[in-house]
Design brief:
single chain, about 230 residues, mainly alpha, Serine Threonine Protein Phosphatase 5, Tetratricopeptide repeat, 12 helices, about 0% strand, disordered N terminus
Length: about 230
């Protein structure tokens, strides 16, 4: 969550563009409300989310052009399981501010399965704005994978790994792509590293077992899938 609701902090580590001074106080209130929701015991969380959503909707009646408020409305809706409405809120935020980075990330994540080409467009815009964001590169790689653009997916994962080497997801994803191309040695290195970082992960063990089986290392393969 943001380090400062009045500065350049933003959810998911993404910075926000500066807003007019008149909006800063409202922005602080919105972000404090979001923090309260996250810190509240489960029994009270639903009521706080509903209150937060109603506050945002009243605010948007007065300031319908505020992209950040639409983004946060989408967050609240997503937490309440109203995914279609959340997507609509994030799209509205994007149309109002095409460079609002957290909205670009959410749109990419939300559309990655159903509309991967559109997801890639959002995520590609995001990595142009934030080339040092490993999560953005990872999302872009997943989108490329959905589109069977394997070279692009591998290249995006290499960018993610160069920025954040200790995320096991990045190693697992690139290992799977390399394995499918019979690039066994590099795939194995990434799987071993993924298991160093996340020793109990069943996907990494299964994928490594499959790789070892393909290389006729049967005893090692058995240990991985046992």
């Amino acid at each position: 969550m943001p380090k400062s609701c009045c500065g350049r902090g933003a959810p998911m580590g993404l910075p926000l563009r500066r807003r007019p001074v008149a909006m800063v106080g409202l922005g602080c209130l919105l972000l404090v409300g979001a923090l309260l929701v996250l810190a509240t015991p489960a029994g009270q969380t639903w009521r706080l989310r509903r209150t937060s959503l109603e506050t945002l909707e009243r605010l948007l009646e007065k300031q319908p052009g505020w992209a950040l408020a639409h983004y946060w409305r989408g967050e609240r809706l997503a937490e309440m399981g109203r995914s279609d409405e959340a997507l609509g809120a994030w799209l509205t935020a994007y149309h109002l501010d095409p460079d609002l980075e957290p909205a670009l990330l959410r749109l990419g994540q939300a559309l990655i399965s159903s509309r991967p080409q559109r997801a890639v467009e959002f995520l590609h815009r995001l990595v142009r704005l934030r080339p040092q964001d490993a999560e953005a590169w990872y999302g872009l790689a997943v989108g490329y994978g959905r589109l069977k653009r394997v070279d692009d997916a591998i290249a995006a994962l290499r960018r993610a790994l160069a920025l954040e080497e200790e995320d096991p997801r990045f190693h697992r994803e690139i290992a799977q792509l390399l394995l499918n191309r019979s690039q066994f040695e590099e795939a194995e290195r990434h799987l071993q590293r993924a298991l160093q970082l996340d020793p109990a992960n069943p996907i990494a063990h299964y994928t490594l077992g499959r790789l070892l089986l393909l290389r006729n290392r049967l005893e090692e393969a058995e240990r991985e899938v046992a």
